[in-house]
Amino acid sequence: MAVGGITGTIDGIDYRNVRVVAAMNKIPGTAWYMVTKMDRDEILSALTYQMKMILIILILVIITSGSFLAFIIRDQRVAFYREKYEAELNRLALVKHFDYILKFANDIILLIDRNLNIIEANDRALEFYQYTRSEFIGMKLEKIRAPEAVSQLQEDLKTVDENEYATFETVHKRKDNTTFPVEISSRLVIIEGSKYYQSIGRDITERKSIENILRESEEKFRKIFEESPFSIIMTGKDFGILRTNLSFCNLIGYDDEELKLFTFRNFTHPDYIANDEISLLKLIAGEIPVYHTEKRYICKDRSIIWGSTSVSIIRNKKDEVQFFLVTIEDITSRKNAMTELITAKEKAEESDKLKTAFLHNVSHEIRTPMNAIIGFSTLLNDPDLTEEDRTQYIDIIFQSGSQLLLIINDIVDIANVESGQVKVNLTQMNLNSTLKSLNEQFRINRKQNNVSMSLSTILPDEDSNIITDNTKLVQILSNLINNSIKFTRDGQIDFGYVLKDKLLEFFVKDTGIGIPSEYHSRIFDRFYQVDSAVSRQYSGTGLGLSICKGYVELLGGTIKVESESGKGTQFIFTIPFLRA
Ligand code: ADP
Predict the structure, then answer these.
(1) What is the pTM of this model?
(2) Would the CB of 513 count as within 6 Å of ligand 1?
């Protein structure tokens, strides 16, 4: 080929008849060709070796991956079978588990079809309803309902249908017709388009009876709370009123709703609030077990009442304050009686003091005229006495005797008034002429010339005939006019009467020393005399005004004083106006 001028590589057979691969290339610049040949086997021998190696490696790889694959497949199959086995085990366990649940469950478990037939039930259900399995399965649901609960069945199932689940209470019936309350949890189950109810029922007889006991005890507590004669309040931790009973509402005048907006501060007298707050804090701190107090409450109508109050604290299991329980006993009448007793005691003590003062006064008042009588009577024995002196002494003795008589009369009068022995002696009298003669009497007897006296009468003389106790009326007016004269150094004394409705209102008014207002309520007490330097200068027993008061009240009227220190005094009294 080289001879033919062909260049390149060819596959051929050489002279030895061996397959060779020859390469022919022209040597540049010559006419020569270079021919190189190599046995094909020789060339391929290296390749064959490599091929073999590759083949071996390939086979090894295939074997390895095949084994690996086989291993994986085997492993997967093992896992698959294991899983299957475990699933089967679980299923069996589950079946067992549900079997046990069904068998030993304390609850009634029923499966009900859409026609309301019982299609499955656990043993507990059979026990409960007292049926055999063959009797029970296929039974209508309403057969195990108490007659009074049958009508509610459709309503209950409707709720289950609507919500897919419902819990309700009803009453079921056993084979022997006894009934028991039951709580049903029912679930709607749809299997291949068919509707089933899976119901779990629990006998709640015990719960119901506990509920009833609780309700009864709550009712009892409510009754005790509501109907207790003691007032009871429940307040929260912040002292806000939570609940009050009727007794407290009646006591305080607010209703329960009004009180719920209050704390105890709203109806406690301000004098007690600070002390209450301190004591309640002590109660919370556990320093005192109960807080007792007697305090004043302000009612809705602003009246004040007394309450004996006990506050106790109710705590929960964690010892936290839940609420305060307050009981209040109305002790207003006891307190008032106590106050009256104290007043009476003070009055008795005062009266005792007054009596001592009176004895002192009376002895002075009696001794003064007595001494004059005894003294001047002795002097009368003097043979050398002039006629003029004798007349004067006799006059003094007469006046002292009269004064003594007046004092003794006063004592007898007040003793009679107080022992209730004075009788009213109603007679007909002409009021105007009686007053006129009184006026005349005082005008003649009056010592002070610088005090003028005037009488005013409203009725015409001829029309002033009335019926009353003449003597007592005159004595009242005389006592009052005497006092006016006694306590008025100079000025004016007016007395008289006016008509007020069906009453005759008398007045005796002076421009004398007056009576300070703090004494007004006491001057009518027997033996009481205004304790002032001015009034001490005047004689008296302190009986005149109490006799006046006693007589005015006996005649059916009232007496009062209007006076201001230094500006004069007016006594006003009434008696019924009875025309003669
Ligand atoms: P007495 O015998 O002391 O006058 P009364 O009972 O008549 O007793 O009066 C009691 C007291 O009332 C008197 O002591 C006097 O202090 C006061 N009093 C009574 N009337 C008057 C008056 N018109 N002016 C001022 N004080 C009077």
Answers:
(1) 0.44
(2) yes
Beta bridge partners of 427: 468
109 in the same domain as 145:
yes
Beta-carbon contacts of 196 under 8 Å, excluding residues fewer than 6 positions away, are 111, 112, 113, 114, 119, 188, 189, 190
Task: Name the residue with the closest Cα to ligand 1, atom 16.
Answer: 530
Instruction: Using a pLDDT cut of 70, give the percent of the chain over it.
Output: 97
CA 212 – CA 237 distance, rounded (Å)? 30
Structural domain boundaries, residue 474: 423-576
CA angle 211/216/219 to nearest 5° reads 125
- Of the residues 523, 539, 549, 562, which should be mutated to test ligand 1's pocket, given the most ligand atoms within 8 Å of the CB? 523
At residue 462, does pLDDT exceed 80?
Answer: yes
The secondary structure element, H or E, covering residue 170 is strand 165-173
pLDDT at 534 over 80: no
Is 149's C-beta closer than 6 angstroms to any atom of ligand 1? no
**Residue bearing tokens 């819990």:** 167
| Token pair in block for residue 414 | 């007040």
Query: Among residues 269, 304, 330, which one ends one of the domains?
Result: 330
515 CB under 6 A from ligand 1? Answer: yes
Residue 401 counted as domain residue: no
CA–CA separation, 166 and 162 (whole Å): 9
Q: How far is the CA of 529 from the centre of ligand 1 (A)?
A: 6
Q: What is the average per-residue pLDDT within 414-428?
A: 85
Residues 443 and 572 in one domain: yes
240 in the same domain as 194? no
Are residues 441 and 544 located together in one domain of the fold?
yes
Domain identity same for 259 and 326: yes
Same domain, 170 and 239: no
**How many Å lie between the centroid of ligand 1 and the Cα of residue 536?**
10
DSSP string, 321-349: EEEEEEEEEE-HHHHHHHHHHHHHHHHHH
Residues 445 and 553 in one domain: yes
| pLDDT tens digits along 484-533 | 998 998 899 999 999 998 899 999 999 999 999 999 999 998 778 887 55
Sort residue 166 into left (φ over 0), alpha (ψ -120 to 50) or beta: beta
The DSSP-derived string for 476-535 is HHHHHHHHHHHT-SSEEEEEEEEEETTEEEEEEEE-SS---GGGTTTTTSTT----SHHH
Please tell me whether residues 197 and 239 are part of one structural domain.
no
CA distance 331 to 349: 26
- Rg over alpha carbons for the chain, rounded to the nearest Å, is 64
560 is a domain residue: yes
Q: Which amino acid is at 474?
A: V
The last residue of a domain, from among 330, 354, 371: 330
Check residue 449 and give its pLDDT.
67
- 381 has pLDDT over 90: no
Q: Evaluate whether 275 touches 294 at the Cβ level (below 8 Å).
A: no
Instruction: Measure Cα distances from 260 to 236, 238, 245, 299 in Å.
Output: 11, 12, 12, 15
Per the CB < 8 A criterion, the answer to whether 195 and 114 are in contact is yes
CATH at residue 240: 3.30.450.20
Work out how many domains the chain is built from and give that number.
Answer: 4
Residue found under tokens 């006419």: 31
